[in-house]
Design a protein that fits this description.
With 621 residues, this protein is an alpha/beta fold. It folds into three domains: 3-69 and 168-265, Periplasmic binding protein-like II (D-Maltodextrin-Binding Protein, domain 2); 77-164, Periplasmic binding protein-like II (D-Maltodextrin-Binding Protein, domain 2), CATH 3.40.190.10; 320-548 and 578-584, TIM Barrel (Alpha-Beta Barrel), CATH 3.20.20.70. The chain is 43% helix and 18% strand. Strands 2-1-3-10-4-11 form a six-stranded mixed beta sheet, sandwiched between helices. The protein has a five-stranded mixed beta sheet with strand order 7-6-8-5-9. The longest helix is centred in the last third of the chain and has 18 residues, at 486-503. The termini are far apart.
């Protein structure tokens, strides 16, 4: 069977794949992060991936012999600025490779003893970011072209070798153990040997494509890039994994070579203990816990994390109202019984006369905010939202936790505006924070099956990134139990964690299972109370950089919500004046503030009201 291969499309990778046998392999090229995603989500069998991705996955092996690295200056992974690093306050991260981003953090911390503010941007925007007090990490082909334009340049490979005395490995061939047999490995190694002999012609072709002189790029391939992946390079890679793990940027990882004697098998007790102490888990670690750990052990470990993060025996909750301003929607999600298509007789948009008593009821009950979400209604333009937000602020003074990433993308497309422009305008009108709705599972194979018109995983994360960069906070969520697998859920958690590393903008995580009832058009997958408790506990262990986890009693019921407080949750969510989306599928749990506090007390905790930033609004009772 033909093996599916994905590889980085930069010049430095071309020698490793250009002569691959196309009868034995199908080849697709992409940016480093996209190559890593394809291997993670089983869209390829073997990939030339950034090594940080291998650590995050935790269940892949490397192919010995060839990789992409350097021992000294590489010339294509640079921090560039027009002033010394010591005066830089912000550094833009080229988002196309997590390996380079992690290396940048390690090198800067080693040199300065502190971390500047990091801002994740696409490559073109990272280059434009450079200015007074600002630098940028640029990598790959853009770095080769731009490296001579700045007065201060730090070559990260040179900085690494100066620091450790070891070579650095940026990318290597990786696969799941047992996927690449000896014959396929031989063909990959042969292609690398042939490609390395053709470096001059590869440089000539690349230079011609870009209208640049050949000599510097031929020298780059021959003198700067190190293609060996033997014991010395593996030692350098292991040192990188160890430094990144100590900095809590990557899970602890062993360099395991396909067919070798080294193993990654770690006792479950060791994985649980690491998570309890704040250590980082890989996708493979999460899967092992999900499949092998007892429910009792997961409860103990996740509760230990909650107590470490929140030593006081206090559970928070918020008094707000979930207002669904319209049910008209163009996405036709198969799991949603709430929406109505455009022109449907049951479609609605709430008027201010309809909204006023709802909002006044929240104010009268001492509420502090509105959770405002709805369908993608093509009749509602950005001015409608701005007027609505300004009116709510002026008349009721409530916080606005409003509009999921999907809704924000919809407005941007309708208006022909950038996501940033939409967020800035909505923020000026009164937007305080962004709810985590519409995430479902951040794996596009799943999203295409359950809601093919919905935004992609990258688009959802992009909106959240931009919101966080503007100072808006947000929640993050996961709805599982449709066509998703256990692995899909772990990948979802790692994507949330990676963005949190970058922005720190997520306040809390909530998960729930698909509510399959009347009006939904997709069959249920995994579900039930035990699975919910396992999933929440593992999320608490995986999301080491997210402070809060909320119990989803709205879908699971108040009794299960209480139990969830011993499975990592420190928040009981919101009182329910009303709820329309989940209840339209048949789930109708309700609770007021008094009942919520009673539930919290009976679970053994004190209760306190909070706002959207999880600041206490009084003393615990």
């Amino acid at each position: 069977m033909m093996l599916r291969v994905a590889a980085v499309k930069y010049l430095n990778a071309r020698p490793l794949y250009e002569t691959l046998d196309r009868e034995a392999f199908s080849l697709e090229l992409a940016l480093p992060g996209e190559v890593a995603r394809r291997l993670a989500e089983d869209e390829c069998d073997v990939a030339l991936i950034p090594v940080a991705a291998a650590a995050s996955l935790g269940d892949v092996v490397f192919l010995e012999g060839c990789a992409i690295g350097a021992s000294g200056a590489v010339g294509s992974v640079l921090i560039v600025a027009n002033e010394p690093l010591e005066t830089v306050r912000e550094i833009a991260l080229d988002l196309s490779s997590r390996t380079s981003a992690v290396l940048a953090r390690l090198v800067v911390s080693h040199r300065l003893g502190r971390q500047p503010k990091w801002v994740g941007l696409p490559a073109s925007e990272a280059i434009d970011f450079v200015g007074e007090g600002r630098a940028a990490l640029i990598i790959g082909d853009p770095a080769l072209v731009a490296r001579d334009k700045y007065s201060h340049v730090i070559d990260l490979a040179a900085a690494w070798t100066e620091w450790t005395g070891l070579p650095f490995v940026f990318a290597a061939w990786a696969a799941r153990d047992g996927v690449v047999d000896e014959r396929a490995h031989e063909l990959i190694a042969r292609a690398a040997n042939e490609g390395l002999e053709r470096r001059s012609s590869i440089a000539e072709a690349w230079a011609a494509e870009h209208g640049l002189p050949v000599a510097p790029y031929a020298a780059y391939l021959r003198e700067n890039v190190r293609y060996a992946f033997g014991p010395r390079e593996q030692q350098g890679l292991q040192r990188f994994f160890d430094e990144a793990s100590q900095a809590k940027l990557l899970p602890p990882t062993k360099v395991v070579i396909a067919g070798g004697k080294a193993t990654r098998i770690e006792p479950l007790d060791s994985i649980l203990a690491r998570a309890e102490q704040g250590g980082r888990l890989s996708v493979g670690d999460g899967l092992r816990l999900f499949r092998e750990a007892s429910l009792f052990d997961l409860a103990l470990a996740s509760d230990a994390v909650r107590r470490r993060k929140h030593p006081q025996p206090v559970v928070t909750y918020i008094v707000d109202r979930n207002v669904n301003y319209t049910n008209v929607c163009t996405t036709s999600c198969r799991f949603c019984a709430f929406y109505r298509p455009v022109g449907h007789a049951e479609g609605y948009v709430l008027t201010r006369d309809q909204l006023r008593p709802k909002l006044q009821e929240v104010v009268s009950a001492g509420g502090v905010q509105i959770l405002l979400q709805g369908g993608l209604n093509p009749d509602l333009r950005i001015g409608w939202y701005e007027d609505l937000f300004a009116w709510i602020k002026a008349e009721f003074g409530l916080g606005l936790h409003a509009l999921s990433p999907e809704e924000i993308l919809h407005i941007a497309k309708m208006e022909g505006l950038s996501v940033t422009d939409v967020l800035v305008r909505l923020q000026r009108a009164g937007l305080d924070s962004v709810p985590g709705g519409g995430a479902e599972i951040l794996v596009d194979r799943v999203r295409r099956k359950i809601a093919k018109a919905k935004c992609t995983s990258d688009e959802w994360l992009f909106v959240m990134r931009k919101a966080h960069q503007l100072g808006l906070r947000s929640s993050c969520t996961m709805m599982y139990g449709t066509v998703d697998s256990e692995r899909d859920r772990m990948l979802h958690l790692v994507k949330l964690r990676d963005l949190q590393d970058e922005t720190g903008g997520f306040t809390a995580f909530f998960c729930w299972d698909f509510q399959h009832e009347q009006g939904t058009t997709i069959e249920p997958g995994d579900g039930g109370t035990t699975l919910y408790l396992r999933q929440q506990a593992i999320a608490r262990l995986m999301l080491d950089n997210v402070d809060h986890v909320g119990a989803s009693w709205v879908t699971q019921g108040p009794d299960v919500g209480q139990v969830a407080l011993r499975f990592g949750a420190d928040d009981f969510g919101s009182v329910m004046f009303e709820e329309n989306v989940v209840s339209s599928a048949g789930t109708t749990f309700r609770m007021d503030a008094r009942a919520m506090e009673e539930r919290i007390h009976r679970a053994g905790f004190r209760a306190v009201r909070r706002n959207v930033r999880y600041e206490w609004l009084g003393e615990p009772s």
